[in-house]
Fold each of these.
Amino acid sequence: MDNEVELKLQALLDGELPTAEANDVTSLLARDRAAAALVEELRHTRAALAGFEAEVRLPESRDFFWSKIERDIRRLERPARQPVASLPLALLRRFLVPASALAVVIGAGVVLLRPSGPSGLTPAAEIETAVADSGAFTYRDYSAGTTLVWVSYPADNEVAQDDEMGTVE
Amino acid sequence: MTVKDYSSADDRALVGASQRGDMLAFEELVARHRDRIYARAYSMMRNEEEAVDLSQEAWVKGWQRLRQFQGESGFGTWMTRIVINLCLDQLRKQKRQRTESIEALDEESGGVERQMPVVAANPTAGLERGELRQRIDRALGQLSYEHRTVLVLHEFEEMEYKEIARTMGCSIGTVMSRLFYARRKLAVLLADLKKQDSV
């Protein structure tokens, strides 16, 4: 007997076979002893299980079992309220770290990218040589608003006799 | 509407009161249906401790989801569906954790049962109720969880094939196949137990 027929026999027993097929399977049962024996075995098993579960009882008293359920319900309901109370703090914590990191990046960018020169964001002082081998040096102190120019005379390849120092502004 | 006498109120009134947060009403519902819920868990798990824990968990879930209960089915049936799903989740977890044996794989496909001759005589004929219960209990414990679950849902929960398929997440064909092999194996196991006892 093939498996499809076996499953149809079972479906007939369980009342799950469509009427048209049920008629065919019923007539098969009438003429096939093996099919009839199989259905009988399935019927015995089903009958043995009937009412079996009705006798199973929870092995704990009503009060004890309920006390565990009640405790779990209360435990699970309690933490649900706590996050609501601390919501502002949680939000603050959530955004504080990335905001701080962003502030550091922006600050570093401002320091590194600020323009040089006498615009208020310049270094406190600088020294420059205006023309190579001219023997002149300029010192500017922005905080004091002072510019000093050293002029060496004679030039580098000559022996200097006197240094002249002029002050501009 | 408030419930004054919990023990005489019907399930519908108790569910309504529970949905409004009345835990005494819910306690009465637990008292009424706890054996049924436990029985279903025990049939599926075959372990008393696990069955108690899972039925307890089902009641807690029941309380949490009480607002979803619209009364399309009875409250006991609704609770039974919750415990069945919890048991199935647990059984699947356990199955993933243990190594599959060749025997178990063979059983899944029903290979062994197909070869077995039909048990002609009723293996439970003439048994006293207590003895019959013991034998069925032992035989059920020897089935794989897939076979046992299909049997439990069909025979005890009286679910139709398509409902079992939906619950277990498989096809109707698989349900029919598993149910057939579960019954066949149970018949063989009961016949074996009868032989052992008569020796």
Amino acid sequence: MSVSQEGTRSPRSSYRWQRLFNRLKGYAVSPLYLITGVSLLFLAYTVLLPLWEILKQSLQWTASDARRVEGAVSGEFTLHHWIRVVSSEISQSLLYEPLLNSVNISIWVSALSMIIGGVLAWLTTKTNLPFKKTLVFLAIIPYMLPSWITSFAWISVFKNDRIGGSQGIVQMLFGIQPPDWVSYGFLPIVICLSLNYFTFFFLLISVTLGSINTSLEETASLLGASRFTVLRKVTFPLVMPAILSAFILTFSKALGSFGVPAFLGLPIKYYTIATMLHGSMQNRMVSESYILSLILLLVCASTIYMNQRMIGRRKSYATVGGKDSRKVLFDLGRWKWPVAIAVLCFMVGIAIVPMLILVLQSFMLAEGDFSWSNFTLHFWTGQSNPRIASGEVGVLVNNSIGQALGNSLHIALVASAVASVVGLLFGYIIVKRRNSLSSRLIEQVSFLPYLIPGIALSAIYLSMFAKPTMFLPALYGTMTLIILISIVNELPFATRSGASTMYQIGGELEEAAQMQGASWFKRFIRILLPLCHKGLFGSFLLLFISVMKELDLIILLVTPQTGTLTTLIYKYAEQGFQQYANAIMVIIVAIILVMYFLASKLGKADLTKGIGG
Amino acid sequence: MNLIELKQINKQFAGQPILKNIDLVVEEGDFMTFLGPSGCGKTTTLRVIAGLENPEGGIVRIGGTTVADGDKLQFVPPAKRGLNLVFQNYALWPHMTVMENVAFGLQMKKLPKPEIRAKVEATLGKLHILDYKDRYPSELSGGQQQRVAIARAIVTEPRILLLDEPLSNLDAKLRVEMRSELKRLHRELNTTVIYVTHDQSEALTLSTKVAVFSEGSLLQVDTPRNLYRRPRHVKIADFIGNPKINLLSASYSQENEGTGSTRIDSPLGSISLQDLIPPGKGKVTLAVRPEDMTISHEPTAQAAPFQIYAVLPAGSETLIQLQSGDTGLLVKEIGEQDYVLDSTVWLNIDPRKLLVYDGESGELLSL
């Protein structure tokens, strides 16, 4: 045996240089390696480099520091900004209070979402509740719409005239002035965010509950466990990984969310770390805002790390599948109808009513006045009237809205088209080079933007692209930058969707074409693309919806020329022109609903795929 | 002429050796079968020949040209090796019609359209599926899909046709039908075929040569007849043949110095073998095929007594399970036979049909 070992080793060493040459040549001409290399470079440039840049800049004196602070030299190393944020007289209001608020909100939002989503998921998958399909559809609506839609509705309903300027619906109908803590701040923020993010829990838990073989639960019942014990001892542990995934997702989303805390918190100076970040950016405290985004990122990452540790290997049974057996539904008995009606009312209340309120408001001249003469088309089609909203014209005849609509569509179309194709390529590498280092790298790095709250990511991009960087010119103020950041932000979803599409295409189908002499490019165009066009299209449409409703991500980056519908809403809401904001919101919702309809009709769009944990 | 040569092929997956020093020669016109249980390396060897996997060490030559050199890391792409492959699950492109599937390889060769059409139709005709040329794969039965996959592989007229467990997805009746189809095709096309299967009866009925794999090594390359009659290793003996060969542990010793006569003591009694195995002594394993034994109702010389444990009639043949102490034996008799359960019978064995394997290494001792 040892002789033959020697025999195979000796030619090897004599061919060392030839081996090296051939290996390198193999990498250079193999499309798979080339794409892998380009993908890794792209991710390094758009995800890893920005992280490094922001860290570096937070540790340097800036040019404006050099003018203000004695002994500061622009570009030199300093801990000044970190000390200022972490331990100075302003750190209480700059960092600790907003951070505490953010964490507090995130915990409560996660808990509340878990209860709403979990109960709803159990009711629609495991019981004999009627109207299940309607309920599932209603539950997905909040996920499709911008998260701050509920906050607008909330303001319209619970506004008080002490802070809001005019009275809300409650005050008008019942004559009671809602206290500030109901109208603004912690409570409404938690409620509005929960009503949006419970969808994560709902979708993830539903999928897992649906895949659990009923016989697992039946076995426990046969062994004498009560219904409650079965739920606690069998069902719950099996669903645990899904719950933890949804928890990570909700927690990090809530932590980084900007729109809702801005609309509901700022009027009473209730800051979260995201709104503080935005504020300090506007106050030219750029380095401080970088540090805030790094801290935000750190909190997110550590939550996720802890969760991963908790899930650990248990994740392996996350999809308890096996054969699709007969499903035995829990009989709600005489509670069936009362529960159904209650749940239905609740779902209509959170999914449909907010939108109706916004539509209604957009037709009302003065808020809170429900007399017939108060209804008007002014905010939609009206000409300039100096007495109303500083002479803004109606949204349908307003040129700046036309421009914003054009920008929104432009960004959403390009970003989602590029992201879905890039995601497909990443998915291809992940599937094709399974278990290799490069495949794992791509999988993990493309997942990173998921952990970076949108507003932090945009702070990073703002710094990185304010000046020419490496191969790219200064991108600040261009559509390209907004498109680029939208692509990067959607990479986690796009990659996952691409990988799951690719997993469904057997490797042999490509190998068969390889055997027939088709080049990689031909294989991709003639075999892979036609086979995954449905998945690709579905992913494109869902990405489109997601980009269309984005505010947190781009609010720091837009200029008047690159403004989108969402940033315009923010501008109007900030100025107090709520009806204009509502009218534009209705336009966005209409576009999103049309796209979702197309997605479910034409593509194999599956919302649940996008948020798998 | 040696068409395919494998020399010292080594291949690993994640540090685990999958192929260990495979040496193999396939001659032009052979119908060579790679046989072995799943995970034994037969499919990997096929993919190494096809060029879909690259070996870490060793050389593959096709028609005298080196197509893969694991030592120099030089590899010729699959399409330039003059071969084609039929995949286990057919791998038909679901978005193309039968016609488009089969024409794909010719299109890649940039043949003129009328020629492509003529060739595709001729091939489809040969496989009796011309009527389905405008259907999509999902509109075909399993057997028809199988034929399309074969048509796609042979339309480019490769010198070598590789088939990876092509019949494993078909039902039993269709499988037998396709066997004769494949055998006829091999003759008609005049190509060399390498065929991977775990079904030993497929291997024995189809091939001119069989290569038996086990745990990444080649155990034996031989004609089906030799493989059945003289398996070189006890593992092969155990694997080949249905019903299974009977294996018995025994010991052997020299009877008389210099006479070449050896005595074997086993549950079959004491058997004397004249010039049938080399001299020596120790533990051995006896192997005897169920059809190589006869049962008699009366005691005869050298016959061992057994009890009838079970009788299993199967139409054209009858299997009889015998028992004596801890030893169970299976005997096959032609036609319908009947025995009284638990009655005693005597078993006769032709010593020349007895295979003797070394008890330690499992190598064949019989000369």
